[in-house]
Amino acid sequence: MAQMTAAELHAVNDVLVENGLWIRRLIDEIAQIVWTANADGTTTYFNRRWYEYTGLKIELSPQSSWQVVIHPDDALVLEKRWQRAVETGDVFECEYRLRNAAGDYRWFIGRTVPLRDNDRIVSWIGSATNIHDLKQAEAAWKESEERYRLMVDGARDYAIFMVNQSNEIVYWSAGSERVFGWSAAEAVGQSGELVFTPEDRANEVEETEIERALRDGSASDRRWHIRKDGKRIWVDGMMRRLDDEKTGALRGFAKVARDATQQHESEEQLRRAHDELEQRVQERTAELERTNAKLRQAMEQRQILEKQILLITEQERARISHDLHDSLCQELAGTAFILQSRAKAIENQSKVAADSLAEAAETVRANALMARQLARGLHPMEIGTSGLPSALRELCLRISDDVSCVCECPRSLRIDHDVAINLYRIAQEALTNSLKHANATEIIIRLERIKGAIVLTVSDDGQSKRRPGRGLGTLIMKYRAHAIGATLSIDSLKARGTKVSCRVPRKR
Fold first, then answer.
1. H helices within 47-101, ranges in order?
2. How far is residue 19's CA from residue 282's CA, in Å, rounded to a whole number?
3. I need a surface site. Which of 16, 164, 365, 487 has the fewest CB within 10 A?
4. Which DSSP category does 421 fall into?
5. What is residue 175's DSSP assignment?
6. How is the chain split among helix, strand and coil, in percent rounded to 5?
7. Nearest CA among 241, 235, 283, 285 for reference residue 261
8. Rounded CA gap, 194 and 206, in Å?
9. Half-sphere exposure at residue 290, Cβ-oriented, CA atoms within 13 angstroms
10. Beta bridge partners of 354
């Protein structure tokens, strides 16, 4: 065969290009989405309909376009079927949902066929047809079929009858006979008001139900109806409008109902029981509120009494302290002064007697000092709005020289007098416990303000053999902490010793 000239080759190429453009224009004009793929399944081309439907840009690669618009619930099934088709070379068919430019998903059916050259797949060409309306119609048909199945399968328990446009009964099922008592021969031709009570007939309830079904397509019916024997039954039913499938013209109405008398009675009993229970709950709640009010009143009175006991205790301590300080200590000091004076007066006459009187004067002075310290222990004179640190330091000074007692307190800290007294007593009790029960050799009393709260801590290095929270001293400390709205904690230290902490919040 003679070789073609360059001009002939150029002409053939032009024809091929022109035919390819014409085919592409034809594919762009059809209603279906069309695409092509390589032999390995990689998408290479979409027609114009694809971009119009999805709203995607042409610059986006065809392969990644699928991942953007395919519904997440369909992506896995679609991917598996497509891979199987690529591996086997079979025709690919699948239903899936694609997202349009407005963001809505619609159903498509896709079909992709392989293009072969000598039994070798060289490419794939596929199409997707919009079947969304068909799927909706299918769903509606399935819903209708389900209603029909419900009517047929439940015929024994459900009364099913139909009336025409004039409200005359044209169909009466066996279930209707069982529920209402009339046979089909007796019911057909009668008015649909046959099963309604006289009062509902007078109020034209049947006509109202038909009007609602005519307007809305269906109308619920839950009320008392009447049987052939005159017995009233509670019916739970539904009336639906029936239209001709082809013309859409009204054909009549279908009524589906069931005898729900027992259920209605149970619901009424449950409602009455609920009302009775609600009434009992309200009465019990009121009773509990009254009891709670009395309890709160008793607790308030107890707190008042506790505070009065603490106040009376401190007042009595103060009275005894003042009596010791102002009476006994003064008397002892005067006696010591007289003895010392008499010792000097008779020193020249009898050295032995003078020494005895001087020794007695020293003993009296020591007893006066002991009484003064006892008075301070009963009621520290210097406690006031800013005197608690001084009182705590003075408390440490009264400790025996065998025990190291350190007071880490600010020079001045303004505290309410009531709070200061109780904190002092807590520190005093904790100090006594450390000395008596723990055999402590080092005690640290710390008073500080942390985030607005007053915190008192008493730490020792004692043996901590006692059980925290069980002794009388511990109960007294907790009692005083509660009286000022504080929290008390007693903790054993890791190495040895015990730490007593009392925290008075900013707002007590």
1. 48-54, 62-69, 72-88
2. 89
3. 16
4. H
5. H
6. 50, 25, 25
7. 235
8. 10
9. 5
10. none
What CA dihedral angle connects 243, 178, 258 and 140, to 10 degrees? -30
pLDDT digits (tens, 9 = 90+) for 153-167: 556 678 888 999 889
Is 33 within 8 Å of 108 (Cβ atoms)? yes
State the pTM of this model: 0.37
At residue 307, the 3 state secondary structure works out as: helix
C-alpha 272/C-alpha 278 separation (Å) is 10
CB 456, CB 430: distance < 8 Å? no
Q: Cα separation of 255 and 160, whole Å?
A: 6
How many C-beta neighbours within 10 Å does residue 22 have? 10
Q: Strands 442-450 and 404-408, how do they pair?
A: parallel
- Amino acid identity, residue 345? A
Q: Does domain 154-259 have CATH number 3.30.450.20?
A: yes
Residue 297 amino acid letter: Q
What architecture is the 383-504 domain classified under in CATH?
A: 2-Layer Sandwich (3.30)
Whether the CA torsion 399, 404, 408, 411 is positive or negative: it is positive
- 21-48 pLDDT, tens digit each: 666 777 777 778 898 889 888 888 888 8
Q: How many Cβ atoms sit within 10 Å of the Cβ of residue 131?
A: 15
Q: CB burial class (10 A; 0-12, 13-18, 19+) of residue 20?
A: exposed
Tens of pLDDT, residues 126-161: 999 999 988 888 888 888 766 765 655 556 678 888
Pick the CATH number of 18-132 from 1.10.287.3510, 1.20.1640.10, 3.30.450.20, 3.50.50.60: 3.30.450.20
Which DSSP letter does residue 35 get? E
Where does 201-345 show beta strands of DSSP type E?
A: 218-226, 232-243, 250-259
- Cβ-based neighbours of 200, under 8 Å, separated by 6 or more: 206, 223, 224
* Whole-angstrom distance, CA of residue 66 vs CA of residue 103: 15
No. of helices (H) and no. of strands (E), the chain? 15, 15
Q: CA 419 to CA 427: how far, in whole Å?
A: 12
